[in-house]
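User: I'm writing a short report section on ligand binding and want a predicted complex to refer to. Could you take this sequence and iron/sulfur cluster and write out the structure as tokens? A short remark afterwards would be nice.
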Amino acid sequence: MTGALSDLLNNKPLAKEHLVQLLGITNQEEHEALLHHGLNTKAASVGRIVYLRGLIELTNKCAKNCFYCGIRAGNDTIERYFLSDEDVLQAAEFAYKNQFGSLVIQTGELSGPIFAAQIERLLKLIHRHTNNELTITLSCGEQSQEVYQRWKEAGASRYLLRIEASNRKLYEFIHPADGNHDYDTRIKGLEDLKKCGYQVGTGVMIGLPGQTLEDLADDLLFFFKMDIDMVGMGPYLEHADTPMFDQRNLLLPASERFLLSLRMIALLRIMMPYINIAASTALETINPLGRQMGILAGANVVMPNLTPVTDRKKYLLYNNKPNLDKDASLSTATLNDVLSSIGETIGYGRAGDSIHFSHRQA
Ligand code: 5AD
Ligand code: SF4
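Assistant: Sure. The structure tokens for the complex follow:
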């Protein structure tokens, strides 16, 4: 057993060099011991309860051009959509009736007064139609502090803004230098969100071209230092209509990106026992059992997709996105069976707020 693993299992504090060693585990038994420690930590902190967030991919319109993302503005091979109020309310109603407790509204990154007003209106509309019983997370990119505040007042309680890569150089490598992507602005966004009183989430992609284990260890330390409440992270996946596709021969095999993502989840759970961690769709893209494997490594949130099936096919951040045709009620029933078979309980009807956040407030 590596020294770092036995230190970890004996609850010694984790330094960066230990994180690097643990992320680099190649031995299967050690890998499993690490994930098991993630699961035990979760059981003792947030419990073996999985919270559901119904995901509504409101629009695939985006003003940005991230090199890795399939819905980047420069991809003119896709049809752009913006869901109607009726579609949004239907998805919200599904979440409400099935006791999801919570919704996530995700969009490409748009800005300006029209978009700010659209989101504000939808927040109020959803709350009215679901008796104020669903908590809402927004994932709508960088906005001004005023806009974050306005959406908070309209009823959003959590916000996801992934740092994507906490290493400034890597961040700059995966984003165009077109004046729309500034690392410091991204960090300020996370700080502004905290000031507005949100439960704040961030995350990274794992297995990016040129990314090292040191970078990933720094990502974990970044979440810790930023005192973040929730994390969504998963493997980077290629998309053929993006500039980063040209670097696909620099990548780790998908199976290794997958295992590395599980070790990231386990280590993060051990470092930040009370945060919420999502088992990402990207995990499930590589391995059909990916979601439950993420849960068994320490994640405690899943986000079933409630976007109408016709539009779901247009929200492709990466190739081979799963469940494109699966009706939401079918996938919810399956999820229930799968999670109970691995000893987890779904937190039906519960908001599943980040306990770390309530500690932070206290
Ligand atoms: N592979 C994996 N994740 C991706 N995202 C965007 N493109 C990809 C990709 N090719 C993630 C980003 C973004 C989130 C909405 O999806 O981290 O923040
Ligand atoms: Fe737009 Fe987000 Fe994709 Fe970047 S990652 S292109 S901001 S949707």
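A remark for your report: The longest helix spans residues 28-45. The chain has one domain: 3-361.
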